[in-house]
Amino acid sequence: FPHNEWQAPIDVPEQVTGYEEDSMVLEARGGGCSRVGLESDNHTWYASFAMAGCTNLTATWRGRKYTLQQIHFHIESENMLHGHHMDMEVHMVHKSADNRSLVIGLFVQRSHIVVEENRFLDRLLELHYSSDAITSGVLENPYLGTMKTGDRFYSFLGSLTTPPCTPNLEWVLIQDILYVSPRDIQKFEHFLKTRPQADSYGHDDRPVQPLNFRPVKIGKVSAIM
User: Fold this and answer.
1) In b/e form, how buried is each residue of 113-131, taking b as 16+ CB within 10 angstroms?
2) PANTHER family, from UniProt (predicted)?
3) pTM summary value
């Protein structure tokens, strides 16, 4: 199959193709970003570091350095894991100097009493009622807030999950699941019900696309700096 037939999201199979020889390095120069832009469209809500003019957050993968552009959310998860959706999925969208794209995906579930909530996501989801670039007052490093050195992930080629569904994107799906409060997810579902492209259940996920024999491998995060 040509690569433009490899669309996203996918259902990650139980049997992967193999293991990556390369590993991913995440870096927050100067400790991260102190400003983030907040915007919404017909589809979802974005926390935009590009809008705020911050280029301190980068991911190096397969010999190419990507700069974090924005973070957005999908309910329920767009990608599936062995036939199952999660409550939510976070997408960290990156771009390289030669205009290639990398999406880091994070699975999110409603927390239970005994599980510690993810403070970074809890704080970020609380921001979606604001409408302009704000100063957070502290340096934000979304990598440290959501991942750790040694984390394993699934890697594959895919596409954007919103129109024009541009192909040939690098996808990385972190295996560990993050947790947020049920309140945060309920608020975001309520917000999505006001978006023209979300459904009446407050969902904004694209259906799973065929694998079409593409390789899905396991890699790891070797450093977060």
Assistant:
1) eeeebbebbbebbeebeee
2) CARBONIC ANHYDRASE
3) 0.91
Task: Map out the domains of the chain as residue ranges.
Answer: 3-224
**57-92 tens-digit pLDDT:** 999 999 999 999 999 988 899 999 999 999 999 999
Burial per residue of 164-199, b for 16 or more beta-carbon CB atoms within 10 angstroms, e otherwise:
eeebebbbbbbeeebbbbeebbeebbebbeebeebe
- The answer to whether the Cα torsion of 17, 19, 22, 27 is positive or negative is positive
For the four alpha carbons of 172, 46, 188 and 41, in that order, the dihedral sign comes to negative
DSSP state of 62: T
Query: So what's the architecture of 3-224 in CATH?
Result: Roll (3.10)
> Could you give the CA distance from residue 199 to residue 63 in angstroms, rounded to a whole number?
39
